[in-house]
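To whoever is on call:

I kicked off a structure prediction for a single chain this morning and the downstream step that reads the tokens threw a length-mismatch warning. I double-checked the sequence; it's 151 residues and nothing unusual in it as far as I can see. Pasting both halves so you can look.
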Amino acid sequence: MKRDNSISKLQTQMTVELERYNKRIKFVVFLIIALAIGGAVFYHIVERWSYLDSLYFTVSTLTTVGYGDFTPKTNFGKVFTIANMVIGVGIVLYGLSMIAAHFIEQREEEFIEVLGGTKVKRPAKNILDKFKNFIRFENETIRKTGRNRGK
């Protein structure tokens, strides 16, 4: 009975987390599309490039590829490009890291299901926590086996 209750709590928590993740992903994708379209319109108006060339330059800038075949010639275009790089690259990298973290978390959940109830330790935040975890692991090993792990 207690196990069923904890499983339902875990499922509810996972559902809430998935909804939050979906909202964040949608927002980041919206921002990336808005940056790409906004950059394309800006470069079309200011630099007099075609929409396709403007979009190509914006996307290559946001993805940090930057082939160098197009460069802004006006001062206003250069200032906009600097701001677009700083803001846009940060948003794109945040979105990619969020997607990668989601896949890693899914993989961890699969491992937890396979292990079936095995207690998973949280990662240490600093060197002191790592040392405490190591000492705790050594003490548990000695208590369970009656001997030191290294000996």
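Update from on-call: the warning came from a stale cache, not from the record. Cleared it. Sanity check on the structure: The mean pLDDT is 80.
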